[in-house]
């Protein structure tokens, strides 16, 4: 970390000198100015991290300097030093946005504490800002294809309304991202976005999850539970994998949509809820209706605004901007320099089928960043994408042909099978898998490389 740079503006040479000594001794970089004008010029040119400012100076007085510093850089912390008995001035300075004031004569400890506090506060604020930016970047929809523009236009039309939205598309195309974007751009954006993964909740729990239950309403209901619909009141509920709901649950959800009210299990009381519903599925609901596993009336209720997110292979123009976006994102996250991508690699990425769509592309880019040593990613770094036929070459754990003979082979094949099953469980979400099996993502990528595991070859 570079040394924090402190600008001291004070007309008294003795004070500047003593502060210079103290600050440099404590590991700060010192800049000194004897007048307001000089200080302002230095502040502009040298971008200090903090200013120590004397109030009473000949020429431009401290309060005016403070004003000008503020308009120069709003977030620059200023600590004001005032002569004895000038409390009123100090109060003025605080009103004008000074971080702290110190009365002369001062002990150097007092100055150091104030400095440290101001710098800490600034660092926290900067961190907050960059976290916020990171969240925004993470939830940004990237792409230039006509297909994606149509999706974005549909989001724009849907967002300000209260209409139910049904998002359909293959696994990993960005359905959840679409749902979040609708919520973020809606009038409900300040309220909650409550996500329910209907496929992940066991059948016997889903109703109490959605609608809540009263204490003692069934064995095991030791506490009252507020359902997701109630939690989402005034906000948005996102019913993910909606095709996986049982017939009974479908009937109850339909009722909520029709009546706008829920009943907790074990309670006869109905509770009004004002909830915007967004649903998503990677199944073809029309087919599910044919098969009789999804209610047609519920389908019509949900699909007031239908949005179909096309698979990545149908919009290869989106691949280069997505690759650059993920490259930026992951190199920042992993604290490494972004790598150059050879044109042949970009072509290969655009030709690939991306069965796992954007999630697979995202995982691939992260893996390339972690696994590639040099500054450029070449075709040689893409073993899994180069030859689709590599899927048919024998790999450890691939069934009878490679039946393990040695202990080592057995260990490998078990490890491979374990990883594949965990990856399937999380829908090939690398971060979540790494978390569940408690290993760093970089190690998981090494294993995927070692065993030649990819979503594309799984199936
Ligand atoms: N257009 C896009 N720009 C940037 N990132 C995207 C885009 N589309 C999807 N992603 C990212 O790809 C990943 C998968 O997206 P998401 O989880 O929304 O897909 P999904 O369709 O809900 O998948 P599943 O069916 O498996 O639940 C996420 O990390 C998401 O942020
Ligand atoms: Mg999803």
Question: What does this entry look like structurally?
Answer:
The chain is globular, with a radius of gyration of 30 Å. It is 47% helix and 14% strand. β3, α3 (62-72) and β4 (78-82) form a beta-alpha-beta unit. α2 runs parallel beside α3 (62-72), α13 (319-333) packs across α15 (357-371) and α18 crosses α19 (441-450). The two termini are 48 Å apart. Strands 2-1-3-4-5 form a five-stranded parallel β-sheet, sandwiched between helices. Strands 7-10-13-6-14 form a five-stranded parallel β-sheet. The chain is α/β, with parallel strands linked by helices and 459 residues long. The structure holds adenosine-5'-triphosphate and magnesium ion (MG).
Separation, N- and C-terminal Cα atoms: 48 Å
Shape: globular
Q: How many DSSP helices? A: 19
Helix content: 40-55%
Strand order in space, largest sheet: 2-1-3-4-5
Low-confidence stretches: 386-400
Work out the strand percent: 5-15%
Bound compounds, each kind once, are: adenosine-5'-triphosphate, magnesium ion
| Main sheet properties | 5 strands, parallel
Number of strands: 16
Mean pLDDT: 89
Summing up helix and strand content along with how strands pair, one would put the structural category as: alpha/beta
């Amino acid at each position: 970390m570079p040394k924090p740079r402190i600008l001291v503006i004070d007309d008294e040479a003795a004070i500047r000198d003593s502060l210079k000594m103290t600050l440099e001794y404590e590991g700060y970089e010192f800049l000194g100015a004897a007048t307001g004008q000089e200080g302002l010029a230095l502040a502009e040119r040298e971008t200090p991290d903090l200013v120590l400012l004397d109030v009473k100076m000949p020429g431009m007085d401290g309060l005016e300097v403070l004003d000008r510093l503020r308009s120069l850089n709003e977030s620059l912390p200023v600590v004001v030093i005032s002569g004895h008995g000038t409390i009123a001035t100090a109060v003025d300075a605080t009103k004008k946005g000074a971080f702290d004031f110190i009365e002369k004569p001062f002990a150097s400890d007092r100055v150091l504490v104030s400095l440290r506090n101001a710098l800490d506060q600034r660092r926290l604020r900067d961190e907050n800002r960059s976290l916020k930016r990171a969240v925004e970047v993470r939830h940004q929809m990237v792409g230039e294809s006509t297909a994606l523009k149509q999706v974005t236009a549909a989001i724009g039309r849907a967002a300000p309304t209260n209409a139910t939205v049904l998002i359909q598309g293959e696994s990993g195309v960005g359905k959840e991202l679409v749902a979040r974007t609708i919520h973020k751009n809606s009038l409900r954006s300040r309220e909650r976005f409550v996500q329910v993964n209907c496929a992940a909740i066991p059948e016997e729990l889903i109703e109490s999850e959605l609608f809540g239950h009263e204490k003692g309403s069934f064995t095991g209901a030791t506490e009252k539970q507020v359902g997701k619909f109630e939690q989402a009141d005034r906000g948005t509920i996102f019913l993910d994998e909606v095709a996986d709901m049982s017939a009974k649950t479908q009937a109850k959800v339909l009722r909520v949509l029709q009546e706008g009210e829920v009943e907790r299990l074990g309670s006869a009381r109905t509770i009004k809820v004002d909830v915007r519903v967004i649903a998503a599925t990677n199944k073809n609901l029309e087919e599910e209706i044919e098969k009789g596993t999804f209610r047609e009336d519920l389908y019509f209720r949900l699909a007031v605004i239908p949005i179909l997110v096309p698979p990545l292979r149908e919009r290869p123009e989106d691949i280069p901007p997505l690759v650059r976006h993920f490259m930026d994102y992951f190199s920042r996250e992993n604290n490494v320099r972004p790598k150059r991508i050879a044109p042949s690699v970009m072509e290969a990425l655009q030709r690939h089928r991306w069965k796992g769509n954007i999630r697979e592309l995202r995982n691939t880019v992260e893996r390339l960043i972690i696994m590639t040593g040099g500054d450029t990613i070449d075709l040689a770094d893409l073993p899994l994408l180069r030859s689709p036929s590599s899927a048919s070459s024998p790999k450890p754990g691939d069934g009878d042909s490679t039946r393990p003979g040695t202990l080592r082979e057995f260990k490998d094949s078990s490890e491979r099978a374990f990883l594949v099953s965990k990856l399937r469980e999380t829908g090939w979400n690398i971060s979540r898998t790494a978390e569940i099996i408690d290993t760093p993502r970089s190690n998981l990528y090494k294993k995927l490389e070692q065993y030649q595991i990819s979503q594309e070859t799984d199936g």
